[in-house]
Amino acid sequence: MTNTSLAHVLDAARALHQATPLLSGFAPWPVDIMPAPVAPLHVPAADLVAALGLAAPARCRPFVDAIRAATAHAHWKRTYTEAEVGADFLARYGYFELFGPTGHFHSHQLRGYIAYWGEGLNYDWHHHEAEELYFVLAGSAEFLAEGSAPARLGPGQTRHHAANQPHAMVTHDEPVLTYVLWRGAGMADLPKMGRAA
Ligand SMILES: [Fe+2]
Prior knowledge:
alpha+beta, seven-stranded mixed β-sheet, five-stranded antiparallel β-sheet, 23% helix, binds fe (ii) ion
């Protein structure tokens, strides 16, 4: 059985996704979702998310509250090594795949992550084949991408990355909690550090 708190996260994701044209316009909510139990895995950032005190707008709050309540049940990941990003980054960043090829809920149509970065972190340039949409749930971050103007985004705002478009992200005086979608070719891959596609 998939944990009920993760089912609540999925329900909240679906509600926001279906009510938000910026999200449903990127990809419709997947219709092939099936529970695919994945064991919990803790990282230090999970505790930071559980204790997150950031204000979120009303339409994001059920999703943020469901995430905070489910942190102990999620399979948290960190794609990068300490050599790549440093110990402080690894201690204050983490994500889990809510739905997708290897998520708590299985889908081949779309991949959806919950991802968190603490304040004052530099997520250096990286790239991946899948097309991506970031949606800020709480906090803020500055988004950088080759060929696009930098933009500091807060709750309810989105950032699109084209296939293989190198991008980076910097948090300033507050953390950021995001809902991240991947679609298309390369959806099951991992991002790679560096600017070269
Ligand atoms: Fe990305």
